[in-house]
Structure formats: structure tokens, C-alpha cells
Amino acid sequence: MNKGFFLLTAAAVSALLPLSSAQAREAFTAVLSANGESRTYSYDSIEDAIDSVSGTSLRSLLPSYRDNAPASASFNLRGLAAMIEYPTAGSTIVLRVPSAGIERTFTGATRDEAQDAVTDYFKGAGGADVTKVLQAAVRETAIDPVAGNPDSLMSLMGEADFAQGTDALGAATGSGAPNLLGFSVEGGRGTASGGYDQDRVSGKLSYRFNFEESNAAVLVDLPVNWVRSGESDSLSGSFGLGVRLPVTDRWSITPAVRAGVAGSIDLGAAAVVYSGSVTSDFRWDWNGWHFGLGNMAGLYRATGVSVGDYDIDYDLTNVILRNGISISRDLTEGPAPLRVTAAFTDSRYLGDDLYVETFDEIAVSFSKGTDNGRFSFDWVELGAAYGFGDDYQRIMGKLKIRF
């Protein structure tokens, strides 16, 4: 493979990595009101947002505020409306989250103590109430790190399961073929209404272990993701294990299991997600064109997790159906031709209500194998994709390398 193609690949992927999200909307806003005065503040963490209603914070944020005077705060929590109010001159706080059907009262010797009780409530002391809030968040907001949008852990696990059963690493054929190691990196931005952006960078290691005298293979992968919305960060990752079972020379089935974890101190979210899936991969050639048809069905379950001061449970169960078709053609001749591929993928989410329940993606990529020993890898692919569905759009760039 020539050096120019490799340099072009590296430069293009660098250009497609997320741009700065300085102009993106912050995940949390609060409109503080007391004595006829109102002021709006933005925050990148839920703890800082809720702390704004403590007596100490109100004294510094609202010049007209007087101790023990009635006061209120209207919150936008990642797109979820909430109200915290001191309805009287005392230290009692009333919390309302209409979309979750919640209204709770907190008391303390001082307003600072009452505010601390609200913070502990969102960290898990609220029990089933917090689960209702989290389920409302994945249903009504676009930036939850666990579920509800294409850049959340649950959706990315579905993408990884589909890719494991259909991409070039899993589809390499030939009895007794060598074991293969793959690495990919992708970056891009998702956008939703309300001014919310999500920048994401992901890296994935993949390995294919072939059985002797068989086209069957064990497939493992480890994707890791960093996502930023405004100035709020989250991390997620998963480990997948699949077995590629050839049905015919052109058709294979890959059952797989996967476990993942996502967490964000800023967003006040964390969960463990487990899944089981089955992917079908069918490939055929016609008149110089190469076709691929992939179909996947998987069951995904988000459960509780305890991280630091947080002890919360999403209690979500969803089925992901992912179906795609690809068309490829070689642009050059020889043992390692330059190939262009166009693909369309449709994803459907069934089960518990999510903000994005339908998402489609159109992708174009160029790939090339090596035909000599100058490089330690034998195949490289550069691509870009545009996704859309249910008030969410995304553009991504990706680089894949196979060793």
C-alpha cells in the first residue's frame, strides 16, 4: 500500500474528529427567583446545579435574597424540567419533577441542610423515585449517557454487536485463516433540538481467533467511548464475545454476549448494561459488485450500579433491531485493490420508552489491503457516516486497521 494513501487516511480522520463544543448548551440551567428578582445560571454538573438553591449559594447569586425569605429555582436538568422551592420563610424545600410524577418535601435545621438532602436524594437516597427520574431522562432528553440516544452506551453496544458480526474482521473467510487483530477510532458530533450537542471519540480493539480446519471463529472486542455535552463529560465501554458460525460459504450467524458500563459524575448517571444478540451476515457477488446484508436482534438490560456517592438504577429493558445493506466495488485491479463501499443501516429500539427509537445511518468508505511487507497491517479503511432519526442527527468519521 502506498504511503500517500496512509497519510491521507490519517489526515482525514483527524479532520473529522469532534470540533470544540464551546457553543453547545450546558447540561444544566437554573433560574433563581426571590424578592421579585430572577437570574439564570448554567452548570456542567448536577451537584453544582442543585447546590445553587442552598442558603449560602442564594446569598451570593441573588443580591436581593434575604435569609429565610421564600425563593424558587426552575431547573432544566439535561432537558428535564424540575422545580425546587422554599414556599415559606422556613427551611422546607419542595421538589417537583412533573415528567416523572414526583413531588417531595425535604426539611433541615437550615436551608443548607435541606439542600444537602436534595443532593443525596438524586445520588440514590430517593430509591425508586430516582429510577423514575432517570427513566424520564432517557425518554425525554437527548444526552443521557446510558440510553435514549445513538451515542449512549446501550446504543453503542448495539452498534458494536452488529459490527462484530458483519465487519471485515468477522467476515474474513477461509479454513485455517490466520488470527486477526483490528483497531478502529472514530469521532463525530450528534445534535438534538434545544441546542444540545454531543461530541464523541471512540476507540475499539478487536480480535478474531480462528479454529483450525474450520471457518468458525471466536470474536472479541473492547470499545471505549468518551462523550462531551457542553462541558459535561461521560465515559463508557463494553466487552463483547461472539462466535461466528458459518452456515454456507456466503452466510454466517454470530451469537454474542456483551457487558458494558457507563458513568458520569457531571450528569449524575451510571449503569451497567448487559446484552445478548444474534447477527446474520450474508454476502454475495454479482458482475463485479460485492453485496452484504446484515440483520441483528439483541436484548439489552440496564441495571443498578454504585459508584462513589451514587447508588442508582435505570431498570431499563430494550430490544434493538439493526438491519443494514452494503454495496462495494473495486476501483483498481490487483491483489490489493482500492475498494469503495456504500452502506445503509436502520436501527429500531423496542421496549421501554426512549428519546430516539428509530435511527438510520448512511455511510461511505474507502478500503485497501497491502500487497507487500512494508507495513505491519494488511488492511485499512477510511469512512464517514451521517445518521438521522427522531430529532437527532449525527456525523462521524472512522478509521479501521486490520493486522
Key traits:
20 strands, 52% strand, 403 residues, disordered N terminus, alpha+beta, twelve-stranded antiparallel β-barrel
Structural class: alpha+beta
What percentage of amino acids are in beta strands? over 45%
Radius of gyration: 25 Å
| Strand arrangement across the biggest beta sheet | 7-8-9-10-11-12-13-16-17-18-19-20
Which of globular, elongated, flat, extended, rod-shaped describes the shape?
elongated
The number of helical runs is 7
Main beta-sheet strand count, sense and barrel state: 12 strands, antiparallel, barrel
Low-confidence residue ranges: 1-22
Tell me the number of strands.
20
* CA distance, first residue to last residue: 14 Å
SSE order? HEEHHEEEEHHHHEEEEEEEEEEEEEE
Considering DSSP H and I runs of 4 or more, what fraction of the residues is helical? Answer: 10-25%
Question: What number is the mean pLDDT?
Answer: 86
